[in-house]
């Protein structure tokens, strides 16, 4: 085996080990998040709504406004909003 092969093997092993460590951290963080949602649920909060808010906060405000406008339009067209009637 050449020195170049050894270096490539060592670099590959280092990348794999870094990924494995990060995967372990990711699993730990996912468990922590699950625990926080559990605490929120135990304190009477609607976890489904909280998850939606967390997702919405990740979206650019302008993009979110556009999405909400389209959603509002569609809901109105389908008669899903108070005072609107479904169009055939």
UniProtKB/TrEMBL annotation:
Record has Nuclease as a keyword:
no
| Lineage top rank: taxon | Bacteria
Write out the GO MF terms. DNA binding
Task: Return the Pfam families for the record.
Answer: GapR_DNA-bd
Q: Which residues form the GapR-like DNA-binding domain?
A: 8-79
> Is Coiled coil found in the keyword set?
yes
- Coiled coil stretches, renumbered: 12-39
Keyword set, alphabetical order? Coiled coil
Protein family (similarity comment): Belongs to the UPF0335 family.
Instruction: Give the NCBIfam families listed for this entry.
Output: PRK13694.1
- Under which name does UniProt file this protein? UPF0335 protein HTY61_09965
Organism field: Oricola thermophila
């Amino acid at each position: 085996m050449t020195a170049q092969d050894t270096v490539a093997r060592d670099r590959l092993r280092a990348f794999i080990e870094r990924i494995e460590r990060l995967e372990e951290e990711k699993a730990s963080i996912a468990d922590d998040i699950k625990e926080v949602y559990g605490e929120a649920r135990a304190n009477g909060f609607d976890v489904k709504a909280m998850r939606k808010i967390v997702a919405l906060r990740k979206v650019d405000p302008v993009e979110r406004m556009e999405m909400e406008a389209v959603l509002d339009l569609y809901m109105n067209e389908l008669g899903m909003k108070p005072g609107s009637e479904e169009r055939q």
